[in-house]
Amino acid sequence: MKIDDINARILRELTQDGRISNTDLADRVGLSASACLRRVQELERAGIIRGYRARLDPGQTGRAFAVYVAVGLAEHTKDAQATFERAMEIAPEVTECHNIAGAFEYLLRVEVADLTAYKAFHTDRLGTAPHVRSITSYMVMGSPKDLRA
């Protein structure tokens, strides 16, 4: 599916406010309500729009302490990666798990209540995960720009 200028504007508006009414969205992008709805539905069917989410306040949900964690594996096999990925999939603290190129195999985003909770995750879950060779933690001190939904 082609992302023309109008579709790009629709996506930009929905990224900013996924709950915007179709009427308001149509006004902002310069379409009739029916044409706008048709385009949004096409974007959904094409898989370009994969879903809508609520943006939560981490302080009020007990996840105000964010840490990016670089993880190196001891083995570089497909099985080692699959085993590690399964372990991270079931870890509720891990909100993102990326297989990356570079000095480490994985970059995780971990969200917990505080440093004590992160230490428990680091020691009890990540430190005991299969094939983990190294763990390097980067605590988030502030987020002047964060466009994640």
Properties at a glance:
single chain, 149 residues, alpha+beta, Arc Repressor Mutant, subunit A, Alpha-Beta Plaits, 2 domains, 4-stranded antiparallel sheet, 5 helices, 20% strand
Quick gist of this model?
With 149 residues, this protein is an alpha+beta fold. The protein contains five helices and four strands.
Write structural notes for this entry.
The protein has 149 residues and is of the alpha+beta class. It folds into 2 domains: 41 residues, Winged helix-like DNA-binding domain superfamily/Winged helix DNA-binding domain (Arc Repressor Mutant, subunit A, Orthogonal Bundle); 75 residues, Lrp/AsnC effector binding domain/regulation of amino acid metabolism (RAM) domain (Alpha-Beta Plaits, 2-Layer Sandwich), CATH 3.30.70.920. It has 5 helices and 4 strands; from the N terminus they run αααβαββαβ. A 4-stranded antiparallel beta sheet has the order 2-3-1-4.
The total beta strand count reads: 4
- CATH homologous superfamily title of the largest domain: Lrp/AsnC effector binding domain/regulation of amino acid metabolism (RAM) domain
What's the CATH class label of the largest domain?
Alpha Beta
What is the CATH topology classification name of the largest domain? Answer: Alpha-Beta Plaits
Principal-axes geometry comes out as elongated
Which percent range fits the helix content? Answer: 25-40%
Discrete helix count: 5
Q: CA-to-CA gap between the ends?
A: 23 Å
- Write down the secondary-structure element order: HHHEHEEHE
> How large a portion of the residues is in β-strands, by DSSP E?
15-25%
* Biggest sheet character: 4 strands, antiparallel
CATH architecture annotation of the largest domain: 2-Layer Sandwich
Strand order of the largest sheet: 2-3-1-4
Oligomer: single chain
Structural class, please?
alpha+beta
Unreliable sequence segments: none
Backbone CA Rg: 20 Å
> How many domains make up the coordinates?
2
